[in-house]
Amino acid sequence: MKLGEDLDLKTLLAAVILFVLSSTAAAGQRELDDRTVLQKLAVLDQYFASPIAARVAASDASGVAAALARTRGLMVDARDALDASDIAGADDLVDAALQELSAASRLANRKALPPALHRARFEELYAGVRTFRQPLEAALKTRPVARAVLMQVATLDAELSRAAKLAEMSNYEKANEVLLDVYETVASGLSTLHKSETLIYRLEFATPADEFNYEKKRYQTQETLAHLVLEKGSAAAGTRKLVERYISNGKKAREAAETQVAANDYAAAIAEMEQANDLLTRGLAMLGLPVMP
After folding, report:
1. Where are the domains of the chain?
2. What pLDDT shows up at residue 130?
3. Structure confidence at residue 65 (pLDDT)
4. N- to C-terminal Cα distance for the chain?
């Protein structure tokens, strides 16, 4: 089988599946042998020698290079397992390689987002991550963890500066990745301190409107983070569906909160925004992101 310009990953996987089915059909449920594993590896080798592999490798989409590197690493491990006569282990490894290759192809072929959307998300996420200074400054009042919190402040300021410089060069997509990383770092650090019960702080607001705006900004930040992670394409289908439901229900709660604000009922509006944030918090947790305490 020759892999040409018009071959896509679906064709590759179909070829592998067809081989496996044909190799087992005549003998029924005969035991796995090394020929099946070698054939899968041969197809993968042909893929990496094909023009389409070069196009995928040339993609600057986030995650493609790492997925391809994992694919090659798994292929090496599969061959090592074959040398050790661990056929079942080799088969599992080569199947994992196929899954990584599928992920790389999906990321490379994903439709690029409009530059204006990357910029809008940067502006929203940058403003939201900057609000982390409020709980950090409140946490500095807790003496036992002041040193650890100061390190979080330094990390936050440095990464915000880095993201801003990337944005100045119009590299909003990379800037958003930096903001996502700093969110994970700072949120995880504060969450750990909070769970240790050595960190106790209370946010104080001058007016109910200030508290509502804080909750609203927190919601916008969490919503943007959720969308960024979903767009990476790494979430399982079931997880993605559930997270999208949390986002949808959170949006309904936010809209209800806006209605309450229009009626000047800030107590009810804040309660609705807290519910919206709770829904997004659950979604972020399912995506593996730490949540600000």
Report:
1. 9-109, 112-203, 205-293
2. 78
3. 84
4. 55
